[in-house]
Specification:
The chain has 346 residues and is mainly beta. Helices cover 12% and strands 40% of the residues. It has four helices and 25 strands. A six-stranded antiparallel beta sheet has the order 3-2-4-10-7-8, with no helix packed on it. The longest helix has 15 residues. The chain is globular and about 65 Å long. The two termini are 25 Å apart.
Length: 346
């Protein structure tokens, strides 16, 4: 089965003109100058380095590095050789470093860049473009046949529930790498086996008398387990139907909170914010701004579900923004922007 180690300690941080220092991940170099309102915070290239020991390499295994969030661009090196590069500060990504690892000592180097550029969105915004490895870094060891680790930074398993009266139809999809011929799915005591075709397996479950996720009263979650002979992934999900009424609408309670630096947040920080919203405020929904990276979005969704809250994410649709602004005069364009509200469901 897969083995996951979080690489949070023992990182050397090197910034031009400053002495190297040992830091823990998550980390941002704009924790101070990016929050003082001066808009003169450092934007440039910094380096993170860490030494990993591999006494031996297991034959038939693969080793991947997973990054849940690096802002805004990075190049990853293993023993001086490039493992990969990534542009975009708000999405998870992984690199297969198996062929770069040597028995014994291995040096991991990540060059991170939050400089002004013409290739990474957003280009302009009313917030700090924090630089750093501001979410977890993980070392994942898997067998050669496993659930896809390079499928858009996801778990490789997707669950889609649709409520139909007292029942729910649940579609389970899995993407695999290697020589797998079938995937075993299980939900609520039901087990289905699906053949792998073009690296994908799909099965549909019928949950009779479905136990609905019901917010504050009953935030019930199901678990889908996807299995291969040497790999396994669990995905939690809720079955629910959300309705919006044009006249009545719905109420939102929210409050911003967190540490003085809101970028490099740990899972404990996210949990503390949820505790504050739930216990102190009595909120029934979390509404997040745009550019929430995929893995943290998943973490927040799970925390929100556990706290009996809806999770909502606001995103700007740039194409629609420009279409709307083109139709406005300059005075209106200076005062208005378009927000597309999307309800994110587990």
């Amino acid at each position: 089965m897969r083995k996951i180690d979080t690489l949070s300690t023992g990182w050397n941080f090197i910034k031009l003109g400053s002495a190297p220092e040992v830091v823990e991940i998550p980390h941002t170099w704009n924790a101070v100058d990016g929050t003082d309102g001066g808009n003169d915070y450092y934007r440039g290239v910094c380096r993170y380095e860490k030494v990993l020991q591999f006494p031996f390499l297991d034959e038939g295994k693969q080793i991947w590095l997973e990054f849940e969030g690096v802002s805004q661009s990075c190049i990853v090196f293993v023993n001086g050789k490039q493992a990969g590069m990534h542009n975009g500060g708000y999405s998870a990504f992984r690199f297969n470093i198996t062929d770069l690892i040597l028995p014994g000592e291995n040096r991991i180097t990540i060059e991170v860049d939050n400089s002004k550029n013409d290739r990474v969105y957003p280009q302009k915004a009313d917030f700090t473009f924090y630089g750093g490895i501001y979410r977890d870094v993980k070392l994942i060891t898997v067998s050669a046949t496993h659930f896809a680790l390079d499928y858009w930074g996801s778990s490789g398993v997707k669950i889609t529930p649709v409520v139909e009266g007292k029942n729910a139809r649940v579609t389970a999809e899995a993407w695999v790498e290697g020589e797998a011929t079938q995937v075993e799915f299980s939900i609520a005591g039901q087990m289905l086996t699906a053949s792998v075709e073009n690296s994908k397996a799909e099965a549909e479950f019928l949950l009779e008398n479905v136990h609905l996720w019901n917010g504050v009263d009953d935030p019930y979650l199901y678990t889908c387990t996807a299995r291969l002979p040497e790999d396994e992934v669990d995905v939690k999900f809720g079955c629910r139907t959300i309705e919006f009424f044009p006249v009545k609408g719905y109420n939102i309670k929210y409050r911003e909170g967190g540490r003085s630096c809101i970028m490099a947040l740990t899972k404990e920080d996210l949990q503390a914010i949820a505790d504050l919203m739930d216990v102190k405020i009595g909120a029934s929904e979390q509404r997040l701004k745009a550019y929430i990276e995929s893995h943290v979005e998943k973490e927040i969704r799970q925390i929100a579900d556990g706290h009996k809250m809806l999770y909502e994410k606001l995103e700007r649709e740039f194409g629609e923004v420009h279409e709307e602004l083109d139709a406005l005069n300059s005075t209106q364009a200076a005062q208005e922007f378009v927000l597309i509200r999307r309800l994110k469901q587990v």
